[in-house]
Design goal:
Blueprint: E1 13-16, H1 20-31, E2 36-40, H2 44-53, E3 57-59, E4 71-74, H3 78-88, E5 94-97, E6 114-119, E7 135-140, H4 143-155, E8 159-162, H5 165-195, H6 204-215, H7 226-229, H8 232-243, H9 247-266
Parallel strand pairs: 1-2, 1-4, 2-3, 4-5, 5-6, 7-8
Antiparallel strand pairs: 6-7
Helix pairs in contact: 8-9
Length: 268
């Protein structure tokens, strides 16, 4: 295990990407004294900014990628992983991506050692993410690679878990519903609040209580609102209001209301 040292630090990490995931991982690695030797980005400005932040070199030229690193992390959007893998060329170290939906084997052309290092968390550039107890979904082509990724995740305070590609893809899908879609609903609520001239913060106690109840383990059982009650009169009033505001939001309201009722009936 050439990367492991006595004080649980890792050397020679190259990170492809300078966006949300790459930035949060690079900062977390640096905070734990893991050595990032190079940032490889598409934008010179972004790559330089992140490299300066973690005291690393940077390049936007694939031909100048450091070929002597021990670990290469492709922290780039899912659509870019396959194309990037085709352009990098052969690497000697362990190569991983951070995607929830991309199979591990897309990296096999890069190295004989490859895997997945997927932190199951939402990242926003400019907002520091707390990785303590965050699940890190791991997959590797060999036992040594898995052990390295396991130790790396632990060093960040994460909760490493071995997960197959199929499981990881379903976890990612669940995350879209529980994170991206939930946030979209909140964005719509904020829009409605602003258009009606009341403070979005009025919804905070309701949002907090809803999430806390859901996290106790039974979102289906804690569902409230007109749809679960079959309150068609209230639903008609809401639809009428939305018809004067936004047809797409109105249609979304009806679709979700039907889904709530159908899910209830399917579980009775």
């Amino acid at each position: 295990m050439g990367m492991e040292t006595g004080d649980n630090q890792y050397r020679n990490i190259v990170i492809f990407g300078a966006g949300n995931v790459a930035t949060q991982l690079a900062k977390s690695f640096a905070a734990q004294n893991h050595s990032i030797v190079q940032i490889v980005g598409r934008s010179e400005e972004n790559a330089r900014e992140l490299a300066t932040l973690v005291n690393a070199d940077f390049t936007i030229d694939i031909s100048k990628v450091n070929r002597k690193a021990d670990l290469y992390i492709l922290a780039v959007p899912d659509l870019a992983i396959v194309e990037l893998a085709k352009s990098i060329g052969s690497l000697n170290g362990l190569v991983v991506h951070t995607s929830g939906s991309t199979p591990m084997h897309v990296l096999e052309q890069l190295s004989s050692r490859y895997g997945v290092f997927y932190p199951f968390q939402t990242f926003t550039k400019g907002r520091d993410a707390n990785l303590l107890s965050v699940p890190f979904c791991l997959e590797a082509s060999d036992a040594d690679g898995y052990y390295l990724l396991f130790q790396l995740a632990k060093s960040l305070g994460g909760d490493p878990i071995e997960m197959s590609t199929k499981q990881r893809q379903m976890l990612h899908l669940s995350g879209v519903f529980s994170c991206n879609f939930v946030n979209h609903m909140l964005a719509i609520a904020q829009q409605l609040a602003e258009e009606s001239n009341f403070d979005f913060k009025l919804l905070k106690p309701l949002i907090v209580e809803t999430i806390e109840k859901a996290l106790q383990g039974n979102p289906l059982g804690s569902q409230t609102g007109p749809a679960i009650r079959g309150d068609s009169e209230t639903i008609k009033k809401h639809v009428a209001l939305l018809s004067h505001i936004d047809d797409d939001i109105r249609d979304l309201y009806l679709s979700i209301s039907n889904s709530i009722l159908n899910l209830k009936q399917a579980n009775e």
